[in-house]
Amino acid sequence: MTSSPLLLLTTTILLLLLHLPFGDSSNHDYSDALSKSILFFEGQRSGFLPQDQRIGWRANSGLSDGWPYNTDLVGGYYDAGDNVKFGFPMAFTTTLLAWSVIEFGDSMPSSELRNSLVAVRWATDYLLKTVSQTNRIFVQVGDPNIDHSCWERPEDMDTTRTVYAVDAPNTASDVAGETAAALAASSMAFRSSDPAYAETLLRTADRVFQFADSYRGAYSDNSNIREGACPFYCDFDGYQDELLWAAAWLRRASQDDNYLKYIEMNGKTLGADENINEFGWDNKHAGINVLVSKEVLEGNRYTLESYKASADSFMCTLIPESLASHIEYTPGGLIYKPGGSNLQHSTTISFLLLVYANYLAKTSQSVNCGSVFVTPNSLRLQAKKQVDYILGDNPMGLSYMVGYGDKYPQRIHHRGSSLPSIKDHPQFIACKEGSIYFNSTNPNPNVLVGAVVGGPGEDDVYDDNRVDFKKSEPTTYINAPFVGVLAYFAANPYPS
């Protein structure tokens, strides 16, 4: 019996589908994911919420923050699933949100560009408060050890809102440096829409950098800070990278040659040639190299050539075909680094891939990886694999962005999301009374739309379990670079 043409066609299609990666990535709605990635930040807000707050299960919180110093520290973001405001990762989040707008804002629909700027400003308004007093920086609000012993809505917080401050000549080069970077980058993001605010940000960034550079050292080296910051957001990798990072952003925002000289003169002493294959809240080296490379590629600043060489080297480690030592990938193709909250590496590195691809493309250049020349499009395709994995093209068939797609994490490690909202349950829920919700296997009652969780382990396996915070907890610094990445792919779903 001969097969019918229809049967042969069907069989051929099935065989082709079997050889496709996990799902057809062309079906991803990057514009939808972009909108949701920005919306997430409204769920992380602290302070007085505005009338146009879109995540309706959240309400006002932390309204007396700063009172031990008789100062206003209301506002900002909770960094993850707890109710602490950690200045170090919040400033990094701000820098990456602003950088997303600078590089990819033109690719965003006007409504999402506006929402992105609102998200940036929610952070910068707070960061300005943290540096409003001369020679003092407020680096944290909330005692994490006490906070983490509770499972409590931010609206119900009755724990001590300890304020952590660093006064000169004590050191906080890392947090002050990152704050200066955040304010400088944000000044560029606001330059066209609010020039007066942009000027305030840039002027403040310059002052905060002087504090960071004059009193060199890590904030977590201060005994009054260490027990509050460590081991959560201790400075593990040193403060030197934040000084270069801040100077690079101030150079780009101001075009001041003094900052150019700083980057030229201090590169070696501050470790710019340490080609560390990482980019995140604690280690800025790869980001510095990409950022500074723009001056080499577009401005022919050959005195900064070592930064570009390091950026090239970093890109080569991401390309499987190159001979360079490679960053580790899971069997399913996700960038992997040990330590938990793995998707922070995937989103930050994807962002750098796209930014560097744009810089190279603008000057018609590629990267020489020895055995292979890597084009801007090759870098974009590497980023796209990471994005598509996060959005569902993975062995679990699961979107790691809450609210995107048909299948996504239901039990994320997040207090506000997992407890009944204050609108549905107006009665106070005390510190330990929330434990029944933490231990429940029920899905979270409040969907934190757009939250990207920590993600799977090195085996691509993800258990939807809020107790496993290393996998199930979202953070602002996972989402911030993802905003820029999604903006690019929303405008260019098929990079070429």
TrEMBL record:
Pfam family for this entry, one: Glyco_hydro_9
Protein source organism: Acer negundo (Box elder)
Residue ranges constituting the Glycoside hydrolase family domain according to the UniProt record: 30-486
Any one Gene Ontology BP term: cellulose catabolic process
EC number in record: 3.2.1.4
Entry keyword set: Carbohydrate metabolism, Cellulose degradation, Glycosidase, Hydrolase, Polysaccharide degradation, Signal
Superkingdom of source: Eukaryota
Name of protein: Endoglucanase
Reaction(s) the record says it catalyses: Endohydrolysis of (1->4)-beta-D-glucosidic linkages in cellulose, lichenin and cereal beta-D-glucans
Signal peptide (residue range): 1-25
Active-site annotation: H413, D464, E473
GO function terms (MF aspect): cellulase activity
